[in-house]
Amino acid sequence: MSRQQVYNFSAGPSVMPESALESARRDLLDYRGGGISVMEMSHRSPAFQEIFDSTKAKLKAALQVPDSHEILFLQGGATLQFAAIPMNLMEGGTADYAVTGHFSNRAAGEAEKYGTVHIAASSAGTGYDRIPAQEELSLTEGAKYFYYCANNTIYGTEWQYVPETAAPLVCDMSSDILSRPVDVSRFGLIYAGAQKNMAPAGLTVLIVDRALAGRELPYTPQVMSYRTMIEADSMLNTPPCWCIYMLGLVLDWLETQGGVAGMEQLKRERARRVYEVLDNSRLYIPHAQPGSRSDMNVTFRTGDAELDAAFVKGAAARGLLNLKGHKVAGGMRASLYNAMPMEGVDALVEYMKEFEARHHV
Ligand SMILES: *Cc1c(COP(=O)(O)O)cnc(C)c1O
Q1: Strand positions, DSSP E, the chain
Q2: Considering only CA atoms, which residue is closest to atom 5 of ligand 1?
């Protein structure tokens, strides 16, 4: 199958805007007449510094990052931050964690090595099918931070509000960053692995309130210290140069689509079309409770594992790729990230209806 014949619903790494890939192809061997590829450039060269600075500026503009906050381009994935966050911010004290899925659960587990984790809320008991309401959050007085995951990639739930807490907010936005406007000033720290909605795998974006830097435990590795990385402008060591370049191209595309406000409208519409099928179906069972549903990752099943497998196989034969749910959740998952064209959503919706007509008893 050619690229023109498929829609890629992968949860990550995931679909990229075609224009960004085209630009990368154009520049691949010879970046703007300099005779070398971005992959071959020194990260200390003026040409790369320009790419770095402009990508940072574009991200700052896209998310309206206030001057109080620093943007860092790091490595190690979101998973490294599960440890880096408590090492930098916990100071051996207590932090509140909302556990609404696989990744926040892992983050809480990692943080236990560095201090006291208080579970502020958990939806584990109902299979991570919901997001707690503000009133349900059990907050610790004097907590060093409140941690949550804005969009639960595996289970398909998404926070529809920003929690009110006295402690600084720390948020994993790996799978919904740049999909809606956020008031960055309300957060102590936002971070995201790039491979869901921003760039190729290998880059982690951090947006951190500078006032929170400098609290790291003494044995924190340099590359994990926010203070050190802020001082070095992310270039203590070689940054993920190619990914930073690609992020710049994705941000150029994002701007042509109306920025994060444009993305929010599109994401609501994509998700609406798929949930409409689920809500009118006698075959599909949506996983997430209404009110907690993710616009980015739509999870559902038929209740019959063999039928689920047939759905995924039949979809792939039509070029609708990577609809199998994560192994810990089972069923199906359609990831509808920023770069998913509406035509892809419509092709999925059509297939879902046809499959139901063939298999509904
Ligand atoms: C994918 C994902 C992670 C893990 O990211 P890595 O970069 O593989 O470490 C963490 N949190 C969320 C919300 C994710 O979607």
Answers
A1: 7-8, 69-74, 94-99, 116-122, 146-149, 151-152, 157-158, 169-172, 187-193, 204-209, 285-286, 297-301, 320-321, 332-335
A2: 78
